[in-house]
Design goal:
Blueprint lengths: L3 E4 L2 E3 L5 E7 L7 E8 L6 E6 L5 E3 L7 E6 L4 E6 L8 E9 L14 E2 L3 E5 L1
Parallel strand pairs: 2-11
Antiparallel strand pairs: 1-3, 3-8, 4-5, 4-9, 5-6, 7-8, 9-10, 9-11
Length: 124
């Protein structure tokens, strides 16, 4: 059973930066599509970014050019570097994974079968 644990959320002013991390209990980042999703109050959960087993990343249009996802397969850590943050980026951020499949862009929530517990990001 795979466990994912996010960290790095917090409060920041508009224009600021945060880096989220997602640690995995096993060595899955080398064979999984892993991604970041977010859910704001009253809104549906949406995909933000995803990265394939071979390191190819995809981004939602709303974050393209501002967010960067990367991973360290040896350390089993997934990152989301968020720059130029906007108030509309405020949400609970989740990391998720689906083993042994390609991302094919930014997957929807139903495409993942492993989830972290989430970390709150607030931009004011």
């Amino acid at each position: 059973h795979v466990q994912l644990v996010e960290s790095g959320g917090g409060s920041v002013q508009a224009g600021g930066s945060l880096r989220l991390s997602c640690g995995a209990s096993g060595s899955i980042y080398g064979d999984a599509c892993v991604g970041w999703l977010r859910q704001a109050p009253g809104k549906e959960r949406e995909g933000v970014a995803a990265i394939d087993s071979d390191g190819i990343a995809s981004y939602a249009d709303s974050v393209k050019g501002r967010f960067t996802t990367s991973k360290d397969n040896a350390k089993n850590i997934l990152y989301l570097q968020m720059n130029s943050l906007k108030p509309e980026d405020t949400a609970m951020y989740y990391c998720a994974a689906h083993r042994f499949r390609p991302c094919l862009g930014v997957p929807t929530p139903s495409d993942y079968n492993y989830w972290g517990q989430g970390t709150q990001v607030t931009v004011s």
